[in-house]
Specification:
Oligomer: single chain
Order of helices and strands: EHEHEEEHEEEE
Number of domains: 1
Shape: globular
Largest sheet: 6 strands, mixed
Length: about 160
């Protein structure tokens, strides 16, 4: 395992991503920020807190629960009523985007409503897409082989990203 991001670097990336979101959503009074099951939830909560401290925007946090390995085997659920997304800007957050599968199914859940726009955020983008998903906000782009993967895991009481 090779360390690619330590806790401090992750915090810096999250701060930058939150400020990029504020800049790119200027004039939009209300945002919905959702985290995908796992670390996506943690990062979405952190981004929400930073935006609330640095912007007058109203921000609603939610989570999307899905089976990352087999997304069609169980229902994809949302922690708030998806009808609230109607006409709104929704931002979906995950820790690592690789093939785009998880992000694709998360976006499909959001698109069950007529939203104003959907933006995607990932801490690490591996660039090995099988689906036509692009990340609007990326903390770090990492070139890897198909056999490698990036995992954000707890280590010594903090989160760190590793190439394995």
């Amino acid at each position: 395992m090779k360390l690619v991001l330590n806790q401090h670097q992750i915090e810096q990336k999250i701060m930058r991503l939150a400020h990029e979101i504020v800049e790119n959503t200027y004039g939009i009074p209300e945002l919905f920020i959702g985290g995908i099951t796992g670390n996506g939830e943690t990062f979405a909560q952190q981004i929400t807190e930073i935006i609330l401290k640095n912007s007058a925007q109203t921000v609603t946090y939610f989570k999307i629960e899905l089976d990352k390995d087999h997304p069609l085997d169980a229902a994809i659920s949302c922690s708030i009523d998806p009808a609230l997304f109607n006409g709104k800007t929704v931002i979906l957050v995950d820790d690592v985007i690789n093939s785009g599968t998880t992000m694709q199914y998360g976006v499909l859940k959001i698109l069950e409503q007529p939203v104003r726009s959907v933006k995607t955020v990932a801490l690490v983008d591996r660039m090995h897409r099988r689906y036509p998903i692009k990340c609007d906000f990326v903390g770090m782009t990492l070139t890897t082989t198909l056999g490698e993967r990036v995992e954000v895991i707890p280590s010594n009481g903090s989160l760190e990203a590793f190439l394995v």
